[in-house]
Amino acid sequence: MVLAVLLGTLIAFGMYKYKFKGKNTIDTLFYIPIIIPEIVLGIALMTMFSILSIGSGMKTLIIAHTTFCIPYVVFNVKASIAGFDHSVEEASMDLGANRIQTFYNITLPMIFPGIKSGAFMAFTLSIDDVIISYFTSGPGSVTLPIKVMSMVKRGITPDVNAMATIIMLIVLLMLIVSQLNIKERIKMRKAK
Length: 192
What we know:
Blueprint (H helix, E strand, L loop, with lengths): L1 H16 L5 H7 L2 H4 L2 H14 L6 H25 L4 H8 L4 H30 L2 H6 L7 H10 L4 H34 L1
Protein name: Inner membrane ABC transporter permease protein YdcV
InterPro entries: Bact_Polyamine_Transport, MetI-like, MetI-like_sf
GO cellular component, one term: plasma membrane
């Protein structure tokens, strides 16, 4: 998830800032992991890893999860970038800040809500994914959803209920924190 957030943010920023040939095609390609069924993506990734002679394990699992989480981050960050006034960046540079200072002090705080929402989506998709994980994980890399699924096959036990509750509470806690941040930002805007 962390890798997807970093790469997705960089891709979104690059797609916004730079004009290059094939930009629309690349933008369209980011819809593929969202549109195609998970089982198709899982089989395609498993086949690709097999062709490239990459053994199943933690490495393939990380690549797979990064692959299907990046588009969600890209689209959230792109929406954030498109939604703020870029004259603030220009003003920052007019006042003597260089590009790096402007990025860290102006741009990053402005697009951070998009980064957070992309990270939240990437986390919830990643922690919930069974199908792609099933096809791309190896013997030493069992994810929590696969573990829960294998436990459910033997019958629903208190362990399964506890794990499901913990996952639900983590996601609920993230949602509550996100909503509190939104309310705080609304209060700050009204105070101005």
